[in-house]
Amino acid sequence: MGSGRPPDDDEWREFLSAQPAASVYHTPEFRRALRLAGLTVHVETVRRAGRLVGLGLVLLDRLLPVPLLGQKAFAPAGLLAVDEEALEELLDRLDRRLRSRCLYFEQYLDHRGLDGLLAGRGQRTDRHRNFLVDLDRPLEQIRASYSRGIRRNILAAEVHGFHWRLARTPDELASAHALLLETSRRVGAPPLPWGLLKAVHHELVPAGMCRIYLAAPSSGRGPVVNARVELLFQGRAIDWYTGTSESWAESQVGTWLVDQILADLHGRGLRVFDFGGGGRVGESYGPAEFKRRFGGQEIEISRHMQVYHPWLKRLARTGWRLLHPR
Q: pTM of the prediction?
């Protein structure tokens, strides 16, 4: 097997179409968005008799202000390969490339079939929860799976009166980002960079791979008070980022907008709504209950981490926490 030439977009998409685990995070459009935002992205491939059999899209993010060993490597939806032999080759190639420049390599997988293989290579594993809403059923059934509290909060929001629209103009995109940034600061989560939001809007929205929802009071134009960014690929929507104005949180506009998004995506033929993380298995995490109450089915995902330089990693994480206090 060899690495060969990088795939062109047609070959890339053909490979993804045959991979059940393929995600928007594996697409050439997402790679272009990352690069447009100024982020460093590495694409590793494996070929067998000229045919693409393995692909990894890895984001490199600097944690320490040093030229070497200051980065982490992250594959948000894991690596794709047609079989274990191709995956082993892909991992070997990435290890050789990343070991001399990165503190660690991290990937998330929503299946556990590879746990043994990755553990045998020295990768550490953490169990996390995720929540999926089945959209491949009548809308009435989707809404019937909501908890009573969720249905009550939707009705309360309807009393206030809201409408939703998609972010299309630069001003609307800036309003969405302001809410995302406000919420990230409030909960102590890493913010979505403005440059990346603009790049995703530029690359993924025209391709039908992203929808950025905005909610505002129905009376007049009013301010945007809630925003959610959804990434779409092969029938699956990923709830990527969300933001709510703190002064409007008690109006339940966030709950209302999720219901509207589920209805919109259902009408567009999406099959699964990936509500995202619910914290580590066995730990209490507030947003997990919100997602469960929308009828989200809890699944386990695995976070696998290959640590190349343990003491530098600990130093980097300590520095990050000092720079980003909750």
A: 0.90
Query: Do 107 and 142 sit in the same domain of this protein?
Result: no
Average pLDDT, the chain: 88
Question: What confidence score (pLDDT) does residue 42 get?
Answer: 93
What domain range includes position 315? 9-128+302-323
> If DSSP states are collapsed to H, E and C, what string results for the chain?
CECCCCCCHHHHHHHHHCCCCCCHHHCHHHHHHHHHCCCEEEEEEEEECCEEEEEEEEEEEECCCCCCCCEEEEECCCCEECCHHHHHHHHHHHHHHHCCCEEEEEEEECCCCCHHHHHHCCCEEEEEEEEEEECCCCHHHHHHCCCHHHHHHHHHHHHHCEEEEECCCHHHHHHHHHHHHHHHHHHCCCCCCHHHHHHHHHHCCCCCCEEEEEEEECCCCCCCCEEEEEEEECCEEEEEEEEECHHHHHHCHHHHHHHHHHHHHHHCCCCEEEEEEEEECCCCCHHHHHHHCCCCEEEEEEEEEEECCHHHHHHHHHHHHHHCCC
Question: Is 285 part of a structural domain of the chain?
Answer: no
Are 173 and 86 part of one and the same domain?
no
Q: How many domains does the chain have?
A: 2
